[in-house]
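User: Second chain of the day. Same drill as before.
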Amino acid sequence: MTQAPEPPLLPGHTIIIQVRVEQTTVDTPQKTREWSIRMHLSLYGGWERSKDITAQECQELADTFWSGSADDYFAQVSMTYGCHLDAYYMGEARHAFYSLDDAGHVQVRVPMAYLHQIASSFEDASIDSLELRFTSINNAYCNAGPSSASLDKPLPVGHWSSCWWKTDDGATIPTTDDPLLEGDVEQAFFDLEKGTVGPFIDMPAPINPFTITPTQADEPASGATDPDAESPSASRGLLITITTGAALLLVAGAAAITWKHRRTN
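Assistant: Same format as last time:
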């Protein structure tokens, strides 16, 4: 199980964090291609003569902040000049990021409260860039004062919009989970992307380690033959292995993830 981190993490490092949330298609571990919402986190070290992030440290960060499993969700990690964490949400799990009412008004958010918790757990870290992109949206507008925006850009089917906050451009990175992008959803969202009407839901994964109350490990039951065994219904954490090398992308082990694809036509 994920353990609550004991700050400061990575002492001696100066960490710059960049965040991007976007709609995209993805090849899943089950060899299907799905529409998803991708939450991408890049952590860069080596700034101001600080230490670089090593592959082992990236592994530890993934184990701490990107662990856990859920329906319609999987995660990846890569190590290419920085530590890159990706979480993909399919089907109904996408409602962690968007809500859509019967009138067709869509709101899109990012879990900024959790991302700022991650940043605050390091000795010296800050989020300097946040980008949010959404397709099949029109008449769009951004909230929370982004430094730049691209709104109602045409696609072969429908439109897309983005909002971008960069501290180098004087923007303040949002700190709450309030909606950052709003607009009118287009028919392609239902026909192509299999989106559904519904409210925001709690983010199903990864596990937020800051919400975990540390407890003492239970003593093994008398007569137990395998204290490490899990029941079939037990939740298992995300397993990630990192190997050094350029452009290596490593997918979380399929055995660590429970898959139940649900599609609403």
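The longest helix spans residues 55-65.

User: Great, on to the next one.
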